[in-house]
Amino acid sequence: MCRHTAWLGTPRTLASLLHDPPHGLLRQAWEPRRMLHGRINADGFGAGWYAPEIRTEPARYRRAVPIWTDASFASLAGVISSGCVLAAVRNATVGMPVEETATAPYTDGRHLLSHNGRVDLTVPLGLLRGSRGAPVPDSRCDSALLAAVVWQRLAAGAHLADAVAEVVVAAGGRDGAARLNLLVTDGSQIVATTWGETLSYRVSGGENTGVGIGADMEVGTEIGAGVEVASEPSDDGDGWIDLDDHQLLVADTRNVIVSNLT
């Protein structure tokens, strides 16, 4: 349905994460290798990143066009660096609007969220109904509604990982055909789920030509020390670990913890 990726670690440019890898998000927009549902991700893209020395809330760039058509973003991506990035390319669920507000990442305060999958609209609407402090969704698409449910749980005091896990399990219990791969960050941790789609992660140590450098990547490219979580590996280098279905990943700059959702 979509492809998404997140980075947490030493600052790197958006281009080094999204454009430069041989199978990065740019290429996954037109040639995903592991996407189980759909063939192309041309209904929009977005990226969010943090500049904590300026403000706590992330910056965000979204367009309802294919990522490869936006030359301005490609230019910006080479000069914007951040220690925490979340980005996505979109294959819209049939019947959902193709518009900027329906494109991930969604934001609330310091949080960024992407959803790879689909869910019946009645499910997030039902979870929001009657909830105190339920935010107004960015869009009426399924992903934006799911994001609003997560925001509501966070506003009620839940920790990020608990809020994400609770929403995924509740939505999956109400819609047996739902696909609920969420990717969320608050700038200091990454939380991700597998529920009907693929997800991998890699911890890198910061070597110029070390962990995870693909054969087609320019020699000397700096990956940086950190963790990358993605719908599929961005290169054929070593170190990528695939998650099983129905799992929860919680990662920060010290640990990556994977547990079962059900």
Automatic annotation (TrEMBL):
InterPro entries in alphabetical order: EgtC, EgtC_Actinobacteria, Gamma-glu_amide_hydrolase, Ntn_hydrolases_N
Extent of the signal sequence: none
Known EC number: 3.5.1.118
Enzyme type, top EC level: hydrolase
Sections of the chain in a coiled coil: none
Keyword check for Ligase: no
Reaction equation(s) it catalyzes: gamma-L-glutamyl-hercynylcysteine S-oxide + H2O = S-(hercyn-2-yl)-L-cysteine S-oxide + L-glutamate
Keyword terms: Glutamine amidotransferase, Hydrolase
Classification via HAMAP family: EgtC
PANTHER family per record: GAMMA-GLUTAMYL-HERCYNYLCYSTEINE SULFOXIDE HYDROLASE, GLUTAMINE AMIDOTRANSFERASE DUG3-RELATED
Function per UniProt: Catalyzes the hydrolysis of the gamma-glutamyl amide bond of hercynyl-gamma-L-glutamyl-L-cysteine sulfoxide to produce hercynylcysteine sulfoxide, a step in the biosynthesis pathway of ergothioneine.
Name this polypeptide is given: Gamma-glutamyl-hercynylcysteine sulfoxide hydrolase
Source organism (scientific name): Protofrankia coriariae
Source lineage: Bacteria, Bacillati, Actinomycetota, Actinomycetes, Frankiales
Gene designation per UniProt: egtC
